[in-house]
Every structure is written in C-alpha cells, then in structure tokens.
C-alpha cells in the first residue's frame, strides 16, 4: 500500500501542493485528475522521487520512502512523450534495463510482455517507424521489464487518437490486473480518468477536491468544482453522443448542473 | 536527491572553468594591466600617446568605415543568394552551386584572399588581363573591402539562409490573398521577419572585418587599419608592447559593442514553430532574374579564387604562363613547408578533438543537468566572452603571459588558443542540439539502473553524434584557416600553414603562398567530404 501523508510543496514561494494525504491499495488503478497547473504532475514527480516534498511523508508498505532516492524507490514511469531512445531499436529499448540488472526479468517474462503488448512484429524496427500507440506500448514494456512496485503513467493517452486510445486503456487495465500492479495515472481528461481507474483523485489548486470511486463522483459530487468542471464536461459529451444517435433522452447540459 | 550524478558534472564544470581562467581571463587581465602599467607604475600615458599619434585615429576611422561598408555589401549579397535559394524555382543544381560558392571562402585563410585579390585585380592580375584594364586601386579601401566581403559572405549567408528556412512561407500566400502588392508582400513576408537576422548578419560581418588581420596584412597598403597597427606595434620593426596592449584594448571595445548589439537583436528574431513549405507560384521572370543575380555573384566570388589554382600551376606568373607543376613539386620537396603542413593538421585535429569534448561537456551542463543556475550562467557567460574577443587580442594577450613558460611557442598553446577563441559557436550548436532531445531520457535511464555516465554513453552521445561531428568539423576547419591569434604565438618550430604564408610574404615567395593555400583548401574540402560521408553513414544506420 502506498501512503502519502500531509505532502506539501512550493516552488519559489508559491504553494503548488497543500497538504495532500491519500492511500492507494495494492493493484489499484488511480487517476490523478485536474486542470493544468493544479499540481498533478508535481504530485506524480514527488511519488516518483524526481523532486522532494517540503514536508510530509511517502510510505510504501509501511516503509518510509520520503528520503529514498528515485532509483532506490523501485517505482517507474512512462513519460507522456515516452522518452524512447532513438538510437536503439524496439527490442533494445525494451530490454534496456536488463544490461544493468540482468536478473530482474527472465527471458520468458520479457517474451510474455512482448506478446501481451502486441509488439512481436515490431521488435527490429526503429523508434521513428512506430506510431504513437506503438511507442506507448514499447515504453510500457520497457518499464514493465523493470518490475516496478508502482507504475506511474504521465498523460498516457493524450497524444493518441480515437480507437488507439481505447486499446491502450485496455492494455493498461490488463497489465494492472495481470501483475496486480499499483498504477497511478496523471490525466486532465475526466472521461479517461473515470473510465480507466478504480478510484479518481481530483485535485484543484493544490488540494484534494474529491478522492473516490468513479460512480460516487458521478452520483455524489462533493463540491461545485467537481460538478462544474468534471461532471458538466461529461454531460456535454454524453448529450452530443446521444444527439448524434438520435436518442430522445437528451438533457440540456445547463440543467444538469 | 541526485547528488551522485552531479559529481561528474561538477568535475566537468571545474575543468572548463580552469581552462578558461588560465587561457582567457588571465591573459586578458595581463593585457589590460600592461596597457595601464609602465615603469613608473599606473599611468594613462600609453593611452594618451596612442590616441595622440596622428596615424591612430584615422586608422580607427578607416577600420570602422571599411568594415561597415564591407558588412553592408556582404549582407546584401548574402541576402540575394539566400533569397534565390529559398524563394525562387531556379533549378536545384544552380541552387546547390550558389550555396557551394557562398561557402567556399570559409575553407581558406583570409590572408589568401588578400593575395588572391592582388593576383586578380593588380596591374598584372588575372582579371585585369582578361578585362584589359585595372578595375580599382586595390591597395587600400577597395582592396580591403573586397577581401572583407569575401571573408564575411559565408557567415552572413549562413545566418540568413538559416532564418529563411524557418520563415513561414504561407505568409506569402496570405499576404497575396489579402491584396498586397509585390513590394508589400516582399516586406511583410520576407524582409520584416528577417530584419533581426539581417541586422545580426551585418553586425557579425562588421565584427569579423574590423578584427581581421589577414586581409590588411596583404592588401592594406598605405590605408591603415587598427589590425595592421596592432600587428606592427607587437611584431614590427620597433616593438612597443605597452602601446600594443592599448591598441588591443581599444580594438576590444567595438568588438564587445558588436556582441552586445547581437544579443539584443536576438530578441527580435521571429521564431516559427513549424517550417511549412509551399509550392512557389510559377514565375519565370522572377526565377531568371534572381537566378542570374545569384550566378553572377557566385562567379565573381569564384573568379577571385581562380588565381589560386592558376598561379602555382604556370611557369612564372605573369611572364611565362605555360603549364608547369614545378612550384607544387618544389613545395613538396621543401621539408619546412611539409613540417608546417603536418603542424597544421596536428593542431587542427587536436583542436577539433579537445574542443569538441569541451563544448560537449559545457552543453551537457547547461542543457541536460540539474546543476544550479549559477553554473549554467557561468558557462553561458564564458561563451559570450569568447564570442566577443577578437583572435588578435587573444594572441597579443598570450604574447604577454606565456613567454618564458614551457608553453611558449608550443602547439599545445596554439590548440588551447583555438579552442578558447572558437568556443562560442560549437558550444551553442551543442547546447541547441542537446536541449532538443527528450527531457525524460536521463530519468528513464536512471530508473533502468544507469549511472549518469552510462546514460551519457548509452543514450545521449549516440543521439548527439551528428552534432558532435558538426562541431568537430567546425573546429577543424577554423583551426586550419585561422591566423589572427596564431601569428603572435607560433614559434619557428611550430609554424603552421597560415603563419608560414605570412612569412613567405616577407620574402616574396608568392608561388609557395598559393601552393600552401591550395593545400589548406584541399585539406579542408577533403575533411568536409569525410565528415559529410560519416554523417550520411550515421543517418543511414539510423534508418
């Protein structure tokens, strides 16, 4: 279990995170949702260990990781722009970490990941030849080879379009279930957050707005921010889709608020 | 948190700091000191007497005038060449030829241009003979200006050519559909976005001309410029080091001014995010007129260099013009010339190797490290200062500091001098390329268990190879052609080709001068071809 206790962080005197406390259960998929500038990426970086909290604690299974360096935490991240190494082909990217820790994944485990993520036919390709969705899967495989204790995903879907988005969502869920892997996703898209995760952490202005299961966010929004910015967006989307399919149940978005 | 990785970076930082303290800051301080300190302590006497010298102020005025005139001409020429390449449908081969002609002067030392001008436009010159009349009096303003223009066209061309590539060509279409006339379109879609660059090209050309030594050394004649006065004060018949120091300091002032203006101009540069190319509309009149202008200018540049090929390959220019390889054969039998060639190659290769390493290290600090800002600012300031110091001033400063030390007259000192003198551009090239790379690499690689050094070796360096190659090539070629600093620090046993040319001038051995110039040109062209081939191989390997 991952536990954040009273995390605070300021940059040049401006508070970015004010007193964040949450718990994440093993194998859970959590989305951190909020508008840009709300502090969600800072929170992700704090968990990963790139930056240090001003105060507060980060615990994993009771072990205090607050002062432990990024490399020793055993967490891992897939960046929004994937950070693949263009001088190496797909297979060499996936197995990059094995050069340093040959025993961390067996040959069979690597093969299994390659198949699970549908990368077998691309192994000898260069990074430039891949589509966005393929790059995302390579980055995911490269990270999974390291057997992270927690998988962090920074805006994993924002650079992808339509159908690919749905298929990557599926892969992320499969990976989390298959490996019982705690997964934390940063996103600005309510639809992504609410359809992909077990629980959603909504952040606004550096504070927790609501931290709950998707259904309780929909049915019992905790405050105006959640209603106006999260639900309203989904209502508009729903109405547009309904209108498109000629459904009679259209409710004007304004009334729903 | 990432204290471990910063140890390596700090070592790199302090190495760079040490090199530039010893070989840039210290010599300049000594130079400044020498200009103020006489036998009786601190004095302004040297400044007073230099300024009172009836030759000095006119020479300073000449320098400003001729450098500004040359810079203006070079900017206009460079603009025409670049415009023809970017904004017309002239045939590709012509564009490539014009580009090559515009860049050619970079591969030769400036002192060669001077002699090339003499042998082209002099009384017995190649072009004078072809035309049957001497076009202008070359020992003086016109000669200097012609030389400076040739010298600075490549730099101005590169700057303008580069920016033109980034200008959004769609604005041409927008301007037209908005009903603009030809000149309005030309202004709003071409000239306006280029203004910063054009001014930058002018200033850069001015700076280079103002501080160049090679051209006045050959065609200055009685038209005095500051560079010639500085040389004579230091190495002339009656050396006068204190007043030489004063001249060097005075030369520094406009140089620093130019660089400050350049910095300010940078802010006016328009940056477009995406390069969008459009098909230019069909307009044969435009293509023919600009194509002709570009061709004529290119041919003019090339014609001046023609003598470099002609003179050493005839029996006795200008009296016996039969073909002969005697001069070239004799040059290769002269072991002194061969020595200076091997010195040049050694010096250029070492400059390129160590210079590239230094620029790479510096760029790693500013573009890809979490070192505190003060380290990054220090590196940026070093680059700025090296950019503003003319080679001659650096050479004179070295003349004050290093005699009597084991470094005096050594190739090592010359290599260090070149590395410091040319540091700015390689550093900026490297920084630019490194900062474009994905910001997540180091973190990702570290999470995969890499140390900092391992990340650099496994990921960053392989992806930076093409830029490293470019930087290497820049250092190599510049080291091959530079003379302004080396003329003060090369010793009898460490003569390089350019300083040897200067020496040959004294004894009127012009055939050898051209043979050596050819040697430099050929070496640079081969080096350039080699680097291009390597770059191509790299690109192919990636595919």
From TrEMBL, chain A:
MF terms from GO for this chain are: ATP binding
UniProt keyword terms in alphabetical order: ATP-binding, Nucleotide-binding, Transport
Q: Which PROSITE patterns match?
A: ABC_TRANSPORTER_1, ABC_TRANSPORTER_2
In terms of Pfam families, this protein maps to: ABC_tran
InterPro entries referenced in this protein's UniProt entry, alphabetically: AAA+_ATPase (IPR003593), ABC_SmlMolc_Importer (IPR050093), ABC_transporter-like_ATP-bd (IPR003439), ABC_transporter-like_CS (IPR017871), P-loop_NTPase (IPR027417)
Zinc keyword on record: no
What residue stretches are annotated with the ABC transporter domain?
A: 2-230
SUPFAM superfamilies per record: P-loop containing nucleoside triphosphate hydrolases (SSF52540)
Question: Mind telling me what this protein is named?
Answer: ABC transporter ATP-binding protein
Provenance organism? Enterocloster hominis
TrEMBL record, chain B:
Keyword vocabulary terms for this entry? Membrane, Transmembrane, Transmembrane helix, Transport
**The keyword Iron is assigned to this record:** no
Q: Say yes or no: keyword Metal-binding present.
A: no
User: Which part of the chain is the ABC transmembrane type-1 domain?
Assistant: 60-262, 341-531
Annotated InterPro entries: MetI-like, MetI-like_sf
User: How the protein sits in the membrane?
Assistant: Multi-pass membrane protein
Location in the cell reads:
Cell membrane; Membrane
Chief location: membrane
Enumerate the transmembrane spans. 12-32, 64-85, 97-119, 139-160, 181-207, 244-265, 290-314, 345-366, 378-401, 407-428, 472-493, 513-535
The UniProt entry's sequence similarity note says:
Belongs to the binding-protein-dependent transport system permease family.
* Name recorded for this polypeptide: ABC transporter permease subunit
Q: What is the originating organism of this protein?
A: Enterocloster hominis
